[in-house]
Amino acid sequence: MRPLRLDTAAAIAGLLVALLLFPLRFFASQIYINTIPIVVGLGCILYLLAVHQNEDERTLPTLSTPAARVLPSVVTVGMAIMVLVTILQGARTPLFFVIAGAVGSLLFGQILFTSDRDFHRGLLLFQIVAFAFVFRFAALYATPGYIGIDIWTHITDLSRSIYLEQSLGAIGDNKHFASPFFHLFVVASSLVYDASLRTGVYLSVGVVMPLSILGVYAGANLLVPSRWATFAAALFSVASYTVMWGVHLIPTSMGLVFFIAIVYALIRVMRIEYTGRDFTFLVFLSIAVILTHQVSTFIVLVLLGAAFLAQVVFMAGPLGLTRLDTSVFRTKKPVNLIGLLVFNFGLSIFVWSLTPFRGDSFLGTVLEWFGETLEESAGFLNLASPGASGSEEAAVPDTGTTLLDQIVPYVNEIGFLLLLGITLVGCLYVVHRRRAEQSVFTLVLGIGIMLFFVLGLPMFGIRNFVPTRWFAFLYVLMAIVGAIGLRTLSRNLSPAPVVAVLLVIVLLYPGGMMLAAESNPDNPVFSNQHEQLAYEQSELAAVDTIGEMTGSPEGSDLRQDQRLYTDHPYQTVFDRTGAYPSVSPAVLPEGGSVEHDYVVYRTAQSEDATFFSSGDGPGYIANPPAERVCRTTQSTVYDNGDVRFCTPSPAQG
User: Fold this and answer.
1) What contacts 310, CB < 8 A, 6 or more positions away?
2) In its keyword annotation, does this UniProt entry include S-adenosyl-L-methionine (predicted)?
3) If DSSP codes are grouped into helix, strand and coil, which group holds residue 97?
4) Are 234 and 242 in contact (CB under 8 A)?
5) pLDDT mean by block of 10 residues, the chain; 653 residues
6) Which of 513, 643, 625, 423 is nearest to 243 (CA)?
7) φ, ψ dihedrals at 303, nearest 5°
8) In this predicted structure, what is the pLDDT of residue 393?
9) For residues 99 and 131, what is the distance between their CA atoms, to the nearest angstrom?
10) Residue 613: phi, psi to the nearest 5?
């Protein structure tokens, strides 16, 4: 009997799963429920067509030599225009993103459509990294303060405390006391450069983030030729969440850098003859990520668990996976990773047990929260809403009814869906017996497990693992396997559908990823649907002045009615900088006015997407006039033209 062909069986099974999932759209309205079954079905169909044709590599249309030679210059000029537009307009405006999308398409076009003679790996990698620098640092340059929410705590509170006291003991009661590497790196950079903490974080973590793209290339190049490794680096470089952690610079950013290095080191160990030095490097990276970020550590544990499962699969040899075709992959005994997994797991549990968090250990608090979720809110189709970028505690808007409201979610996710489609093809390709190997199985299993955490568990109302923090890590694996998938289609499908697929990637993927909300938190392209996670100079000046006026009281010294209320995310800046305690968005009844005593109004509340609490249930986007926030019965004690601080009137007692 002929052995079961795993790749075609998996493709058929995937097609059946897509058909079974399709009716879920009639029971719940959620972007992934509406789109993923279609993407999975199309990916499986494309792979089955490629398997059916199963011909040698085709001759595809390529750019002429003069065009291939002039495109790098065009890309460079495009990046210069991006810088000029940012300087002249003072922000990354829609014009900036239009130009960036065109430059990104030209970059992808060079990778996919140049002939072998005109393909220059070094030149393309230079363009990719330079483009990543320009796209990210344009946002950092144009933003007066910081981009994001958590960074205000990490820099203005934790790093500043360490800087002033010159001791880690300054944050001894915070959970980052046990994972201080990011903060120490920022403080050290500030001291070395003799610059502010803001400059220090930009010149340290901010510079490392674009350079880490080369790590994705290095890992992919151990599995595929340089053209497709370059394509993997390009996929990752413009991915939405990759960009977000390149401008919202927090421990997650540094954890992502270490994760990329661990992926490269794991693939290297499984692909070549390794030495003790390679395992020592893995141990060093494991310790570094544990001392950097808890969520990143858990994601690394998931990856190592996937690597161990791949080892078990090949050692046990189910379904004949140990019978490798040496013409495709060199036969190599699976690498034993149980020791590395046990070391990481044991050290992580030990550190988490000693980490202070909410009056208990980090491990104890997290397990308690998880248990409460399972008891109180877990349930099928108790969906997690997409949420506001950069904060898992952000309020979420009600679903809009306008045409733009219906289109924006699909624009926001089109890049991820395209990447998911070619990743699925790559996964199907590598499960064939002739191509099976521990390294690629590690990537496939890692993708599957991580998708379960970011897409599967939220379908049951389980959001304790902070799924939005996982996507950038997931993109590392998806970029590598996605490059394998697109290479498979380009080799096996007939030229017409291959060119169509390549053009879709070139024209839609870069622009789609850049238009996603995570790529433009500093100045959202769709400002009526996504909140801005950066602030004008007048808004930051108001925070400082209100803090000075009030003496920045401690939250424990105030009654609940004495706390300050404003929109989300502006309220987080007051609270995280210590200017004035503010724990939640202002309650704005629909059709009514804010009833709090101490409120702050800013013009952005009336013009752009800002969140208010409805009192019951999730928050919503509102554009109230000033009178609904700062009532006429209140006193205005501060007004700089853009921001107004209102307090109870003396006449009221």
Assistant:
1) 334, 438, 439, 441, 442, 445
2) no
3) helix
4) no
5) 70 92 82 92 92 66 92 97 96 96 97 94 97 97 95 95 93 90 96 95 96 96 95 97 96 96 94 84 95 95 94 70 46 78 94 86 87 76 47 40 80 95 94 81 95 90 89 97 94 89 96 95 92 95 94 85 92 93 88 91 93 79 92 92 91 52
6) 513
7) -65, -45
8) 38
9) 12
10) -85, 140
pTM recorded for the entire structure: 0.93
Peptide bond into 409 cis (omega under 30): no
- With left for phi above 0 and alpha for psi between -120 and 50, is residue 359 left, alpha or beta? left
Q: Which three-class secondary structure state does DSSP give residue 612?
A: strand
Of the candidates 55, 246, 16, 300, which has an alpha carbon nearest to the alpha carbon of residue 132? 246
Q: Pseudo-torsion of CA 582, 587, 588, 589, nearest 10°? A: 180
Provide the phi-psi class of 225: left if phi over 0, else alpha when psi is between -120 and 50, else beta.
beta
The Cα-based distances of 489 to 182, 396, 492, 502 in angstroms read 41, 39, 5, 10
Angle among Cα 636, 642, 644 to the nearest 5 degrees reads 20
Q: Hey, which bits of 4-160 come out as E strands?
A: none
Q: Please give the full DSSP string across 547-604, using - where no structure is assigned.
A: HHHHT---GGGS-GGGSEE--BTHHHHHHHHTSS---SPPB--TTS----SEEEEETH
**Helix (H/G/I), strand (E/B), else coil: 283:** helix
End-to-end CA distance of the chain: give it in Å, rounded: 91
Cβ pair 413, 262 in contact under 8 A: no
Which residues have C-beta within 8 Å of that of residue 575, sequence separation ≥ 6? Answer: 581, 582, 583
The Cα–Cα gap between 357 and 467 comes to: 20
**Amino acid occupying residue 112:** L
Enclosing H/E stretch for 647: strand 643-648
Burial pattern 454-483, b for ≥16 Cβ within 10 A else e, equals bbebbbbbbbbbebbbbbbbbbbbbbbbbb
Separation of alpha carbons 154 and 389, rounded Å? 17
Evaluate whether 241 touches 472 at the Cβ level (below 8 Å): yes
Residue with tokens 């390709």: 429
Q: Which of 469, 519, 521 is nearest to 145 (CA)?
A: 521
What tokens appear for 112 in the block? Answer: 């996919």
| Residue 211: both structure tokens together | 């350079």
Q: Which residues, listed in sequence order, are joined to residue 337 by a DSSP beta bridge?
A: none
- CA angle 613-616-620, nearest 5°? 35
Token digits for 315?
């050692």
Q: For the purposes of burial, counting CB atoms within 10 Å of the CB of 51, is it exposed (0-12), middle (13-18) or buried (19 or more)? A: middle
623 burial (CB, 10 Å; 0-12 / 13-18 / 19+) is middle
Q: Which residues contact 565 (CB under 8 A, 6 or more apart)?
A: 571, 582, 584, 585, 586, 587, 594, 596, 598, 599, 600
